[in-house]
Amino acid sequence: MSALWLAVGLVALQRLAELAFSRQNEQRLLAQGGHEVGAGLYPLIVGLHVAWLAALLLGVPADAPVRWPYLAAFLALQGARVWVMASLGRYWTTRVITVPGRPLVRRGPYKSLRHPNYLVVAGEIALLPLAFGAWRIALVYSLFNAALLWLRVRGEDKALAPRRQTRAG
Asked: How far apart are CA 151 and CA 153, in angstroms?
């Protein structure tokens, strides 16, 4: 198996596991009175991620050489991804779900950043293609991701604004 196929396969498995974890948290948050914000954008975000992985498999030769510094940076981002997820814990979802009256999480990277997960995702979308020399895929999907994240962050910030005064651990 090529390094490219292995990397894409592992990322796909990781994303599927994250979707399962997210679904559990979503159900609990909705049962606690939460509501989703920006649901119409969600299929576009999922589609972008699926298309990004497909573009890597279809647009990059399976025997493309690995550019180790980019792959190392991508792997380092996986640690940041785990830190983000652990910091949010039961509040982490792939959707934007807010529970009125609940304090915002202010631990881990959320002490100093509002949207650290989106920084991780932006880095991943650029770095994995670059690790296999696919700069065009990195550029195109980074631009599409930036546009979607711009819309998502605007909606998320608006939804979370009333809760910014309430603090949590």
From this structure: 6
- SS3 assignment for 2-70: CHHHHHHHHHHHHHHHHHHHHHHHHHHHHHCCCEEECHHHHHHHHHHHHHHHHHHHHHCCCCCCCCHHH
Please name the residues in contact with 109: beta carbons below 8 A apart, sequence gap of 6 or more: 80, 83, 84, 87, 116
What does each C-alpha distance from 73 to 7, 69, 126 come to in angstroms?
13, 6, 10
Average pLDDT over residues 118-124: 99
Q: What residue spans define the domains of the chain?
A: 3-16+42-90+101-163
pTM: 0.93
How far apart, in whole angstroms, are the C-alpha atoms of residue 115 and residue 30? Answer: 21
Kindly report, residue by residue over 34-45, the tens digit of the pLDDT: 999 999 999 999
